[in-house]
Amino acid sequence: MRRNAHASELPVKKVLVTTVPGIEDLLLEEVSKLLPGKGDVRRGRVIYESACALDTDRLYRLVANLTLAEKVYAVLTEARAENLNDVREAVFSSLEDVKLILEPVASFAVEVERVGAHPFSSTDVAKVVGSVVQTLDPPPPVSLDDPDVVLYAELVESEFRLAIDLTPFVNLRDRGYRVYTHPSSLNPVVARALCKLARVSDESSFVDPMCGSGTIVIEGLLEAPRARGFGFDVKAEHIIGARANAAAAGVHAEFGVADVRKLANLLRGGVDAVITNPPYGIRERAVGGLREVYERLFEGAFSVLREGGRLVLLSPLKRLVARAASKLNWSPENVRKLDVGGLTTFAYVFVRA
What we know:
Elements: E1 14-18, H1 24-34, E2 37-42, E3 45-50, H2 56-65, E4 71-80, H3 84-93, H4 95-102, E5 108-115, H5 122-133, E6 149-156, E7 159-165, H6 188-197, E8 205-208, H7 215-223, E9 228-233, H8 236-249, E10 254-257, H9 263-266, E11 271-276, H10 290-304, E12 305-315, H11 318-326, E13 334-340, E14 343-351
Parallel strand pairs: 5-6, 8-9, 8-11, 9-10, 11-12
Antiparallel strand pairs: 1-3, 1-4, 2-3, 4-7, 6-7, 12-14, 13-14
């Protein structure tokens, strides 16, 4: 987001925040803690109206403190749009605000997201938005490669919004600490959501017994810096990478090479949470086979969890999870469906009685 001298004059009170579909309620809770107001949930997004006007500093603080967001936009206008003329009228209604953003001389680009069936394309929407903006005097320059301001237009069915992209050309899921990337790396936003579902706190201890590059452990320690986080993986190269990532993130985690099938013997003192993203058999083959890995994971988690402790796992393999849990007569307290990069998967929460 480009700091603009006129930004504080804008009557911005509403933000659009996007996330992984399936964790919108967690994102709404996070935004509510950072910003008094009220919000509505849509698929993969939260539309939030602040109780007070949002100047540049407030918007910067919001973006800096969000952990479950992927993109953040400051909404300039909302309208019902059935056709391109409706889009044009909506953009004209916010033209004075756009003028303030682009003064004195700022280049712009238009990004469009369109969801639903429409008799026109996303390119058509972008052309309409751009043509209206260029009716300003003088017409602001267009720059597709390096714009000062990115205007975001979305049309979801018949809901149209024009907004300022506060995170242009970046996605907040791209954490700076990832110096080592696992072949099946988990989206850090999803990892943080799993840690929240596990109720990781400064007083707790938790483990990821199949930690890969350490994303879950690192996100848990960023969530609760005084917690005690452990990570194990059967491959030494992943543990070396996880340690490098943790150092880059500035957190202290305890990593070691170990097989999930030995989990019951690794943490005899017990932990408050087991949080993991076990293999799906898509990009990497599980050592020992998927069925055995899942069954040993459940047995190990049941063994090391303290009373009231939580097993939180992410997997699309519903039958394997159900079979492994049934052997222990363990039923999930909660199951939620997520869309992670186009793959439908499920976040399970099991509580140790």
